[in-house]
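Service request form, structural biology core

Requester: graduate student, group of Dr. S.
Request type: structure prediction, single chain
Budget code: on file
Notes: please return the result as structure tokens.

Sequence provided:
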Amino acid sequence: MGLSNKAVLSSHKTKIVPPPDAGLRLGSIAQPGQSIGLIHQGSAVQIRLLPFVHAHRMGQRLIATCFAIKVKLMEKVEQYNSENEKKVREFWVKNKIANKSRTQNAKGKGFFMMDGPPYASGHIHMGTALNKIVKDITMRNKRMQGFSVLDQPGYDTHGLPIENKVEKELGFKTKADIEKFGEDKFIEKCRNYATEFIGIMNEEFDNLGIWMDWENPYLTLNKEYMESVWWTFKKADEKGLLYLGKYPIHACPRCATAVSYGEIEYTKQTDTAVYVKFKIKNEKNKYLLIWTTTPWTLPSNTGIMVNPKFDYVEAEVGGEIWILAKDLLQTLMEKIEAGFVIKKTLKGKELEGIEYENPLAKNLKLEEIKNGYRIILSERYVTLEYGTGLVHTAPGCGKEDYDEGTKAGLPIISIVDNNGILGEEGGKYAGKVARIVDAEIIKDLDEMKALVYKHPYKHDYPICWRCKTPLLNISTPQWFFKVTKIRDKLKKYNNEVDWHPVWGKDRYNDWAENLGDWPISRQRYWGVPIPMWVCDSCENQTIVGSAEELKELSGKALNDLHKPSVDKVTWKCKCKKGTMKRIPEILDVWIDSGTASWASMGYPKNKEKFEKYWPADVNIEGKDQIRLWWNTELILSTICFDEKPFKSLAMHGMVLDLGKIKMSKSQGNIVAPKEVIEKYNRDYLRVYVAKVFSGEDMLFNWDAFKEINRFFNTLWNSINYGITYLDLDLEKEINLKKLQPEDKWILSKLHSLEKEVLENYNNYNYPKVINSIEYFVLEEFSRTYIKLIRDRVKNEKSEVLSAVFSQISSALLKMLSPITPHFSEHFYQGMKSNSMQESVHLLELPKANEKFIDEELEKEVAKAKDLIQETLSLREQEKLRLRWPLEELIYVGKKKEFSNTIEIIASQANVKKFSEGKEPKGNFASKEFGEGKIFLNLDASTELKEEWELMELRRKIQDMRKQLKFNPTDKAELIIGSNDNAFVEKYKKEIEESTNTKIVSPTGKGKMEKLLEREFFIELKK
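Core staff response, request fulfilled:
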């Protein structure tokens, strides 16, 4: 910016002020390269005289210079706040910065941040904000590393969660209500509900500073997406991993459908547990004793498990022989208050094959039970924790029962349907509701004298995670993916994934170890229809992989693949007798989610994106997704591609309140993101999120924002210090030859920080990123470096300091920008020149320059800081204030350790001389330090004590300036008097320069105040 001196000085809003670095005053002779300070319309202005201005060398006064000067006008950057954020966001929109950031690396290497699809079911909450902010931090830092980032957001739009919301809205109680209402109308309402909040959530995410392609989100209800799901289903069939089976699954009687293992929650529930006698076949008075908490499963019993290694007894009780585990006999007898006599002890393996009678059999309508009602062996599932050591086994009502029962050849009986209703085989209990029928079954057992004892039992019970209804473990015909066949592959691919934190890898392997086959059919409405057509005559099956395939087979083109439209598509079977009709089920909604990394790209139709970006570089979600989304992704990717779908997984925890209770509307303990924004701002929230992103649960605490505010204020003050007193230029190069030790140290720390920050960004260790930057700013940059250079700023040419300060400021803004995009942009816009990039977000993340890193110097300065701290402690012990200079500090050690930091130590310990040498003689205070000792000279000459007096006087005047609210650049008139006027006269120049005052009366009169050895009267005037 060129500006004539005449123009500047003629403004009534401009005045010359004493320079911070040269002591130049109006009327004095300025030298080329020297700076002076101005205040122009409230802004900090520096005028630097150019070296080629010969007139200055001839002694011309400043007032005579006209054109040959360079004016640097850089306003102090305003303190960061919500208003600044608003302006930054307006700048982004006006200049399309988000889109420029997204497209500038279009030809770069691909980076795929797979966005797990949330439901668009309402306003965002703290958990969804945490998730998206962490994803945004990831995408921003990768863009700044030159990657072409695939940043498509997505929304889950199918499944029971949507159906349940609509049912609630319509007041429906059962599945039958939907049928009465009309399947087509119900599905349309689900579609409307699923998409109602997409626009609102897009805006709320964008309001957090999250840059994703909000105009093009993937939706699981889109035709192209659903076709990818169909293709995935067909792949499972082609690889022999699809089958129709009767396998124990959890069913929700309220939703009237199967639920997968990932949709199960557990709650504490009290049920009636019963001890029941099963009469041994062909024995008059001998019984097997079983114990169960689910009496409704007793009609489906076909076996009893015992542990072959346990000791069992035949105990005579009331004239009967009861068989049960020896270790559990006494407990039961105490409960029923009965006496007993042990007649025989035997091992469990001796009981194998014993046949018995089910006391409820006469109430049922079962076909002949072949090879059932007998004892089988199981070491795995029979314990001595509770019960009798004989486990009631119903292979149709539980995975453990199924595993051992089918292995032993027991028949499978399944009397209960998806609605929880017992069928015709239930005989007397047909039409009754499972669990409710318990009371009737217990009553019948009692009347049959088969009931030994009943009692309430509190235990963990599975419930539907959507509607919270207790689940039933039953066997009904379902379509399954044969996960058990690929379990070893799942663990193999999981071990190739880079988990953050690492414990997630083992947790998934533990989960995969016990995975059963996946029931993927649902007897519901709103979801991806299973693309299977079956002939109603010959039962021929055809699986369709796309809408085009369906058109080729049926001659009908569909724009919407949902029910009921797709159910109307039929065609003649090749057997020529029947019609191909679609089976009525839809797919488990977790298949929608599990295919997201390729379905979101429209694969297999769109192969270009897939080939550049797949598999995803990272998935970032809550730790609950170990057994949910990440599990289904890995299963389906293994089925389709024999490959893992992600290279890295990064987890965050749940958001809890300070009482460690998960935030939820029902608990009334929610803190919404907008509350934090209104109270503080967006970037404070983003910093908070970055600091808690560790894989552990986040305890939301308002007090944490005080420390965040401290960090922002310190950084603001530090950068503005440079703007005020130095010639900052974010592109300024550093002259290595002119660096002082403290400059070399701070640059070494900066480049070490850059190295650490880049590494932690790439490892998704965002707490370490922000904590490292905070420590650098608070402890090293502000508290140490700026303190070290204050005298240099005042007393030397500032080119080196300006370059160092400029590089630090530039690097910090870039390193922080992925986490604090608004704050970084705010400062960048206040400091950038016209030749620089339009936005900080179009720059590259700084990469450490190894030539600046000096680890030995860093260690030396760290030890020097410790030595300084010990010296200050020694001064305090001797009641010698830090502002009082002392003559000498000596370190005596085994070797010299402070060759680079002699002046730093002397300056910060405020001594005239620091040295390393031998133990001195004289008046020294001493203290152990490391392997050596420090010695502080306590003697003070007359001249030194005068310096102390001067320090106290200067401090007193500065305190008065603050009380009178003088600006730092305001020159004040000083009236001063003393009982030692010679002292005032002697130090007149130092007093004026150090306090920015002009002494107008050196012999002022008034009430005196004693400082150290002298008394003073002080008065300030503007």
